[in-house]
Task: inverse folding
């Protein structure tokens, strides 16, 4: 239950806000912020069962070995009977007996394992007999002396009763043994066999309790009407003031109200109906909070959030949240109130030292809370997330980053984005980096560090800001607030030095860029997604289509060295060109050097074959407006013009005009585009023109004829 | 072999349990034959312990009997197969026929015919026809009948090697396309194919839709088919065109897929309600009869479900069945 709302962030820091407006598809923000019921509260039967048997056998077996035993994974598996053999050796008769019978349970459950083998009548009869026998055995065990395995026998008996069709026995077993089933997951599994009958017999509230406990959200939702209103909640409250369904039903109501009010398509009638309903809820929840139930904190927290949704004064909302915090509550409700308070404070409080101290404390808590909670896999965003990672995303990306950017504090904004991204990235399915959080996946693949919000910020921020950001992360600078967040940030020297070097290269600052390039570890570069594209040579003429790109065989093993090669070559040529200009020696050599530079700049521009020298994959896919404004393309055009003027030799004129017409036609139309085309067309029959097949250039031909330039 | 005559229905659920009204429907309309979907065969990704897995054709959603089959109507087992399965297993026909036989034996169903439902295309035609040939051999030529559903688009292809075909006059449009006005049955769509009917080299019978569905769209994108959602609830939906409803407020509904935590409907979503009035069915029927005399010796209604047929009057149902009497 979530909604993404794309917002344009008001900011004077245009380059970054533009990036944010486009948004990273992988980022989950503006999710529902009210969470008193964990939608991902699924009992972990398997994990808990494995852990039980590991303890039972003195922690000498691995998870896989325990699972092989519990799943009866076939005799070919060497692990299949390790626990059983161990218990036999130890003389644990009870344990051996249970595991032997469990094998029978697993065998009976495998009736339809090969789905192509539909069971015969005989097999069905035998299967029912097997389950009956299992039921009888387990039921008998329950009549005897209690053992640590008794609760597992309750579950076994209920399973046996269920699959052998003894519906009446189900309730009896449960009622006579409920007290001894101490393990929650076993109890939940036992009740699962009963729950479907509860609704049929009108015990809806009991079934709800069960579904809440087991996280069976679909089943739970089905016990409520299609649209949950204040009246729905009030009706339940009047009947069951302590209903365990309130955390769920209130959450559904409030988050749906949020969704109504934030729908992409505005509808004033819907908004006003939603607000009327919220006003009713504020009134009702105020009453419910003082009714003396154990859920007062929930009602106060919900009331405050309803006020927030109604657009009440944030100070009033904060006060209401503070009141909610004073009342005893479950951890989930307390965390919910704390998150809401953080959101509200982040939106309204002045940014000063006190505020930042509060942020340090609360973001640390939020990050740790998110790390502790089990994540779930989101198929839409391909990452693991939970409610608290969503809150972190919302607070950071939607509230704090825009505020800090507005204050012209891009470094703080980037540090904050780093904290949020790091929390997400270490739980991402596709990030193989060592995790701060125990991850559910260790898949390797695409390096996610080049697709995050923080990466895009760094790639578009001023170089000076990125260097300052680097200083914060390497403890060489930064405010106390920024420094307090560093422990939660991703900091990789090579990653940052490469970004800084790349930015410097874009700005023609090749010397300082080389210093940063030297700091990039050769092992690290193999993790860069764009590495293979660095092996392209920057010397081919990009405007000659038939051989515009060429992989340099010398670079194939070490493509990253091409960055350094490029810097060195550009420094050398730029130096030569500058000296020639100083001496006003604008001759054929000058033209040659300028032409070489122009070729290399185009190749290393976002459109060139070795774009990866000065770009990352995301930026080369930007629209043409970005390209037109690209410094390398502009510089290349200017160099081509200088080269053209400096040498009137036919070879030089043809190649420079080819380059200029190409740039003008494709990226940045110039006022003399017609003139360039005509000049080039005139040279088509010269030896160089023929060698370069100018008269076969379809683009030029089309341009000349299309614009009536033939003469 | 000529198709059957009389009234028939498809039963397309995963559990066999009839309501009183459904039993009454069968009786009142003298239904002689039930085309009973036994299971689907779809490709399932089989993980091979870390090694690259593979897609394996696997039976899914096998019919479960909550009550015994106690009707006198003849049963025709039907198996739905996705066409990608045909390319994945050369032994598929043997597996399907064996499983059908075992299913019928275990559940005391007498069967003299097997029907295969498959949305095959030109690219899968050879594999499908080969599958059918093998199935026919397994059934014993002349012993048990083999039939197949025929979708409209399949008219442009050679006829499959079966004893007869059932012309599926439903699911004629692209349900994922918001612009499709009625994805269940479009007279225009049927008309465009109807001329090919008279030359079709296979005996045919026909199945007509007696059902409705609601298609949920977010923007232009199809999200899901809604089953139990009540679009007459004016607090949640408002009508904004013929068969088109706008979602007014956010709410979640129940989904048959337990891995999705309830389907969330958002304000601004649209729902297209497809319902085929009896008049439309009758129009199509008339159109087809002119092209293929005797097509309606047997009429099959899709499908036996109280929720669906209760939207039609008894007269309407009778007129859909009518000409075969």
Result:
């Amino acid at each position: 239950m979530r909604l993404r709302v794309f917002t344009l962030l008001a900011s004077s820091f245009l380059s970054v806000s533009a990036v944010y407006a486009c948004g990273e598809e992988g980022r989950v923000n503006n999710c529902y912020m009210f969470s008193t019921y964990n939608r991902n509260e699924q009992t972990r039967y398997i994990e808990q069962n494995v852990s039980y048997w590991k303890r039972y056998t003195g922690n000498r077996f691995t998870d896989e070995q325990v699972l092989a035993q519990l799943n009866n994974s076939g005799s070919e598996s060497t692990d299949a009977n390790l626990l059983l053999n161990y218990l036999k050796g130890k003389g644990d008769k009870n344990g051996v007996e249970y595991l032997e019978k469990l094998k029978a349970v697993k065998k009976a459950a495998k009736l339809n394992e090969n789905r192509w083998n539909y069971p015969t009548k005989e097999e069905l009869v035998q299967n029912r007999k097997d389950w009956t026998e299992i039921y009888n055995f387990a039921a008998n065990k329950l009549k005897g002396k209690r053992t640590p395995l008794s609760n597992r026998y309750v579950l076994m008996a209920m399973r046996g009763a269920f699959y052998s069709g003894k519906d009446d026995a189900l309730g009896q077993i449960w009622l006579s043994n409920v007290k001894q089933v101490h393990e929650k997951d076993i109890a939940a599994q036992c009740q699962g066999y009963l729950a479907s009958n509860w609704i049929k017999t009108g015990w809806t509230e009991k079934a709800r309790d069960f579904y809440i406990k087991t996280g069976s959200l679909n089943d739970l939702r089905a016990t409520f009407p299609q649209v949950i209103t204040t009246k729905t909640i009030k009706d339940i409250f009047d009947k069951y003031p302590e209903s365990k369904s309130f955390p769920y039903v209130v959450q559904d109501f409030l988050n749906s109200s949020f969704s109504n009010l934030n729908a992409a398509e505005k509808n004033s009638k819907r908004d006003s109906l939603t607000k009327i309903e919220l006003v009713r809820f504020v009134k009702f929840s105020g009453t419910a909070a003082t009714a003396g139930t154990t859920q007062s904190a929930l009602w106060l927290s919900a009331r405050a959030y309803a006020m927030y949704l109604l657009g009440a004064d944030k100070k009033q909302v904060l006060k209401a949240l503070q009141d909610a915090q004073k009342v005893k509550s479950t951890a989930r409700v307390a965390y919910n109130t704390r998150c809401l308070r953080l959101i509200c404070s982040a939106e309204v409080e002045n940014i000063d030292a006190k505020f930042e101290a509060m942020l340090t404390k609360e973001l640390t808590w939020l990050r740790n809370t998110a790390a502790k909670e089990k994540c779930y896999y989101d198929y839409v965003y391909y990452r693991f997330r939970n409610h608290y990672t969503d809150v972190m995303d919302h607070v950071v990306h939607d509230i704090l980053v825009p505020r800090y950017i507005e204050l012209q504090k891009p470094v703080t904004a980037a540090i904050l984005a780093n904290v949020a991204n790091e929390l997400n990235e270490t739980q991402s399915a596709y990030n193989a980096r060592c995790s701060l959080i125990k991850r559910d996946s260790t898949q390797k693949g695409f390096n996610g560090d080049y697709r995050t919000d923080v990466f895009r910020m760094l790639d578009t921020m001023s170089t000076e800001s990125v260097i300052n950001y680097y200083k914060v992360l390497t403890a060489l600078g930064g405010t106390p607030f920024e420094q307090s967040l560093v422990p939660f940030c991703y900091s990789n020297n090579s990653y940052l030095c490469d970004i800084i070097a790349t930015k410097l290269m874009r700005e023609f600052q090749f010397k300082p860029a080389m210093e940063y390039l030297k700091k990039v570890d050769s092992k690290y570069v193999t993790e860069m997604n764009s590495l293979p594209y660095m092996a392209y040579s920057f010397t081919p003429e990009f405007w000659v289509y038939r051989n515009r790109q060429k992989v340099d065989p010398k670079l194939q093993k070490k493509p990253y060295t091409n960055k350094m090669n490029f810097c060195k070559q550009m420094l050398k040529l730029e130096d030569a060109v500058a000296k020639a200009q100083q001496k006003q020696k604008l001759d054929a050599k000058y033209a040659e050097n300028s032409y070489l530079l122009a070729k290399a700049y185009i190749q290393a521009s976002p459109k060139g074959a070795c774009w990866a020298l000065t770009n990352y994959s995301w930026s080369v896919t930007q629209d043409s407006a970005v390209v037109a404004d690209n410094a390398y393309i502009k510089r290349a055009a200017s160099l081509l013009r200088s080269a053209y003027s400096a040498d009137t030799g036919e070879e030089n004129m043809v190649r420079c005009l080819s380059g200029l017409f190409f740039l003008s036609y494709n990226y940045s139309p110039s006022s003399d585009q017609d003139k360039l085309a005509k000049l080039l067309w005139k040279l088509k029959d010269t030896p160089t023109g023929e060698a370069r097949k100018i008269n076969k250039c379809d683009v030029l031909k089309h341009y000349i004829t299309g614009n009536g330039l033939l003469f | 072999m000529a198709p059957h005559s009389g009234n028939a229905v498809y039963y397309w659920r995963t559990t066999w349990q009839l309501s009183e009204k459904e039993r009454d429907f069968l009786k009142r309309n003298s239904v002689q034959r039930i085309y009973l979907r036994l299971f689907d065969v779809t490709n399932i990704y089989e993980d091979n312990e870390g090694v690259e897995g593979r897609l394996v054709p696997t039976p899914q959603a096998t019919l479960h009997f909550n009550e015994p089959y106690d009707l006198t109507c003849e049963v025709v087992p039907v198996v739905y197969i996705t066409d990608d399965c045909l390319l994945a297993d050369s032994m598929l026909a043997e597996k399907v026929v064996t499983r059908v036989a075992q299913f019928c034996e275990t559940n005391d169903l007498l069967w003299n015919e097997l029907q295969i439902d498959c949305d095959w295309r030109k690219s899968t035609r050879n594999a499908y026809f080969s599958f059918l040939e093998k199935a026919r051999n397994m059934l014993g030529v002349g012993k048990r009948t083999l039939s197949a559903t025929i979708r409209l688009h399949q008219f442009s292809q050679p006829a499959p090697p079966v004893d007869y075909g059932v012309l599926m006059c439903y699911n004629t449009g692209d349900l994922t396309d918001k612009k499709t006005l009625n994805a269940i049955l479009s007279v225009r769509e049927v008309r465009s194919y109807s001329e090919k009917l008279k030359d079709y080299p296979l005996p045919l019978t026909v199945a007509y839709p007696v059902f409705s569905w609601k298609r949920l769209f977010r923007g232009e994108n199809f999200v899901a088919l809604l089953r139990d959602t009540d679009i007459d609830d004016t607090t949640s939906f408002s009508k904004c065109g013929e068969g088109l409803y706008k979602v007014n407020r956010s709410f979640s509904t129940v989904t048959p897929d337990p891995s999705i935590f309830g389907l969330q409907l958002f304000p601004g979503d649209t729902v297209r309600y497809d319902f085929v009035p009896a008049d439309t069915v009758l129009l199509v029927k008339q159109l087809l009869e002119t092209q293929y005399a005797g097509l309606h010796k047997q009429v099959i209604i899709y499908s036996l479900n109280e929720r669906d047929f209760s939207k039609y009057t008894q007269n309407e149902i009778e007129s859909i069945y009518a000409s075969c009497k």
Q: What stands out?
A: Chain B has two domains: 6-211+276-324, 217-270.
